[in-house]
Specification:
Distance between the termini: 20 Å
Oligomer: single chain
Largest sheet: none
Structural class: mainly alpha
Shape: elongated
Radius of gyration: 21 Å
Number of domains: 1
Amino acid sequence: MMDDQSQTPDSRKPSGVTGSGRKLKDNAADWHNLILRWEKLNDEGSGVADKIVNQRLKQSPGEGLSSTPSSSRQLEEDCSKLLDVVSKMAAIVNKMERLAASQRGVLDLERFQLGAQGRPSPLFHSWPTAQFVELSQGLLDAYQKELQLKQCVVQELAHTALPDLALVYLSCWLHQPYIPADSRLKLEALLLETGHRAL
């Protein structure tokens, strides 16, 4: 369910949407919520990754991870925090995989019931069911790749001895290169199409 701040008054009223339409509408709200949670975790992880890089940059070249017990302990704690963030991100991607599968299931059912051409008129405003599947799969692919990058960053960040490389890892975390700039726009289009946003 979407939070009240992001809902329009129309989307909170009970609707007559049932069956496949209800599933697609619920999935749109779930996509929205998962992406908001991802963004919050990304911000949290950015702060932790920044602390790790700053700790590494303060150490002199060639200095090991155990320069002082307190700095080593702090670095360990921050690395654990970052691992926890990435673990939560992995759980979000697992939920995204289920959403994408659910979208494909709606399309498969429609084609089974109505033939290869599918539904003669759209469930909402203008999108054919296949467009929901395409958008879902595109978002899923982007977040899966981004998760793989974050898993790499979290493994390498504290261990690199090269300051420039540490800064590259930090930049990769912050800028999320695998999530296209238009992802947010596509999400908004999905919310508009399903009635979560007023046209």
